[in-house]
Design brief:
Blueprint: H1 13-19, E1 29-32, E2 47-51, E3 56-60, H2 85-112
Parallel strand pairs: 1-2
Antiparallel strand pairs: 2-3
């Protein structure tokens, strides 16, 4: 459910204090735990270290991000891959094609010499 227009967007006050009067080039990474804070136009150009529960992931704020939340750009779950026999077969096939491509490239460079 979205926030009412009467209230306006929620931007953490501590974040605004941290960027107030500063230039994006001068400041380094600004660490924050405020994942629910919306990105305002004043934040464009700054790099925020958004906490994902384990570490701070660096997020460079661009104009396209205005209106979104900081937490959207710092995933809390790490996707490794889908498992199973089918995935194993796909990995083996990919590795074989990679080796074949490398051998073809090597053969073509030797033929040119």
């Amino acid at each position: 459910m979205s926030r009412s227009l009467k209230k306006g967007p929620y931007v953490d006050e501590k974040l605004l204090k941290k960027i107030e009067g500063k230039k994006p080039v001068e400041t380094g990474v600004i660490k924050t735990w405020a994942r629910r804070s919306q990105i305002s136009p004043e934040m464009v150009g700054f790099v925020f270290g958004v906490h994902n529960g384990k570490q701070h992931l660096e997020v460079l704020v661009t104009e396209d991000m205005v209106g979104h939340r900081l937490g959207e750009f710092s995933p809390t779950r790490k996707f490794t891959r889908h498992g199973g026999k089918m995935q194993k077969d796909l990995d083996i096939a990919a590795k074989e094609s990679e080796v074949a491509a490398a051998q073809a490239a090597k053969a073509s460079t030797e033929a040119k010499k």
